[in-house]
Amino acid sequence: xxxxxxxxxxxxxTKSSITESIIALIEPVIExxxxxxxxxxxxxxxxxxxxxxxxxxxxxxxxxxxxxVSRQIEDMIEIDELxxxxxxxxxxxxxxxxxxxxxxxxxxxxxxxIRVKTFAxxxxxxxFNGTIRDCKNQxxxxxxxxxxxxxxLDNIAQAxxxxxx
Length: 165
What we know:
GMP Synthetase, Chain A, domain 3, SH3 type barrels, 2 domains, three-stranded mixed β-sheet, 3 helices, globular
């Protein structure tokens, strides 16, 4: 008598693939609301998982914007079963000291001061404080004391706006 083996394929997703899937799913809905999807984070804090969705628009977002987006995307994520474990969904503004990651974000904040940390040294440094001059072809042009540094976006570990009061 032949032995029959049944194989079950288990769909496993990493944190980064979950994040990428969520971005692909919710970005059209957020853009439909005339909002910008700034970032998505899926992290574990202690025993709890948190899904953070950062949105923005010209003039800033309101609590109503966050509530509306939260209601819309929560159902979508549940229906698509992208996250199998319990999690907390947070929808918010990226804040004043926001991280910059995409070329369009650097362009939006042209002439603003930022702090940049790189993965690999540029010249002999990994830390920069300067003003965004431009960003094109995935290269950030940063002015620091009259000198322009060219930093590949792929080499940026962290770029944050410097808050000025």
